[in-house]
Specification:
It is a single chain. β2, α2 and β3 form a beta-alpha-beta unit. The protein is of the alpha/beta class and 150 residues long. The protein has a single domain, classed as Phosphoglycerate mutase-like (Rossmann fold, 3-Layer(aba) Sandwich), CATH 3.40.50.
Length: 150
């Protein structure tokens, strides 16, 4: 299974949290990352987004269908994210558009087996996959990308 964790792009401050839209900078970040993702995503990737406006706007930059998942709202537990994605048993790829610290906590759980302070930059992506080597399950980093790198 491939699990792609995409942090929402830069968003405006000062509004109700779930209603915060992307800034102009955020729209550009989302567009750049969406172009990169579209060039690399497997066909039939399942896309999940938090109900927050900034994540829905980030996901919309892909121009693909996505599902709003209430369990990905700001402050969600990493375990809820992993369950919604179906890690590690889902087939194919799942792209989750969400928030810090949930995305970093999920990534650190998979990479280190515990929650550590791991942060994904706004608009950035960590792409993970899993495999079994010698009967031992492993999480593998396939890519880590920021919008500034594109």
């Amino acid at each position: 299974m491939d699990l792609i964790l995409w942090r929402h792009a830069d968003a405006q401050d000062g509004e109700q949290d779930l209603a915060r839209p992307l800034t102009n900078k955020g729209r550009k970040q989302a567009e750049r990352m969406a172009a990169w993702l579209l060039a690399h995503l497997p066909k039939h990737t399942r896309i999940l987004a938090s109900p927050a406006k900034r994540t829905r706007e980030t996901a919309a930059a892909l121009g693909l269908d996505y599902v709003v998942e209430a369990n990905l709202a700001p402050g969600a537990a990493a375990a809820h994210l992993l369950a919604a994605a179906g890690w590690p048993d889902a087939r194919g790829a799942v792209l989750v558009v969400g928030h810090q610290p949930t995305l970093g906590e999920a990534a650190s759980q998979l990479l280190f087996g515990e929650t550590r302070a791991l942060s994904i930059k706004k608009g950035g992506v960590i792409w993970l996959t899993n495999r079994v080597r010698g009967e031992m399950p492993q999480t593998v980093i396939k890519a880590a990308m920021t919008a500034e790198m594109l």
